[in-house]
Amino acid sequence: MQTTDGQTYYGELVGIGAEGVAFETPQKRLTVPLARLSDVSRVAKPSVPDDKPAVWIELTDGSQLVATQYTVTDRTALIQLTDKQVVELATAAVGHVRFQPFNPELASQWGKIVGGEAAGDLIVVHKKGVLDYQPGLLGDITDTTVAFTLDDEKLAVKRSKVAGIVYYHPSGNKLPAGICQLVDASGSRLEVSEATLAGGSLQVTTPAGLKQEVPLDQLAAITARVQYLSDLEPESATWKAYVSGPNLPASVARWFRPRFNEALDGGDLKIGGTVFAKGVALCSRSEIVYRLPPGEFKRLTAVASIDSRARPDGAVRLAIYGDDRPLLETDVSGTQEPLAIDLDVSGVRRVKIVADFGANGEVMDLFDLCDARILQ
Q1: For the chain, which domains are there?
Q2: pTM given for the model
Q3: pLDDT confidence bin for 272, thresholds 50/70/90
Q4: What is the pLDDT of residue 298?
Q5: How far apart are CA 269 and CA 284, in angstroms?
């Protein structure tokens, strides 16, 4: 467990609630108020469920579920998670559902669709590398069809043709923020309004009304007033070579892809004499877009520098945008001291980080954005 002032504790999780997170350490029982909690993580990573995800669901409270099945009957969704647990939830609590994995370009298109304003439900289809959508009214969903009413015509759309669906929700129905966020081994992220520990599992309730059991051996992390960007799933993450073309091997793109909580070579994130456990490693030209989770996040802080492996060489042009509005534009080189970043992100829904080509093109541009986090 880490606190906002940098202290670290090791122990057994014994409780969680509005008053804080309780740990049994070798010395004593310790309760850390949520206002001081940075994050809780396991010493050993939990094993990932065997079932592969086939459905990605976001609730109206910002919770993100990784699932294998999603069906709807009479406005009640039945969701089978990757650990085979089945949960029920009214579709009024569901924001959007994705039925296909997306590459970065499609992920960017999807983000614009779900982030836009609509006058009704949306059904989204994938046609030749482009996402297209139609407004209407969603109905029952089976393993094979999606019921959809378009201009008073009732359709049964083959589910294999549907990339995703977006439920309409009137503006102004703002849910209360959770007390913390829980991440499980599958990658699901739950906004927590209530949690009780019993029988080796956390019984979690989210602000949208989802009730889910999370076994402690499947608990990956708990975060509170601090959210590390490297622990969030980016909406899109892309890399472009200095000189690119259709014959660029896919292995090159995989090697230079953005890395999270590790350096580009898979080792530790290192700036000067400091090793960072959290951060994003980028090689120009890279671009990452995050849709910020619910909560009144006000600041984005980070330490930016060329990685120690490349210094004193390396240079990038760093730009950070909030809802496409420039928040920071600066050059970062291997001869400079690390740059402390502290930006106002009040009211921002999306953050885009661009590590562009610097003065030396793409030579030794191993760029680290360490301890990148948003704070309430």
Answers
A1: 42-224 (no CATH), 229-375 (2.60.120.1060)
A2: 0.69
A3: confident
A4: 86
A5: 17
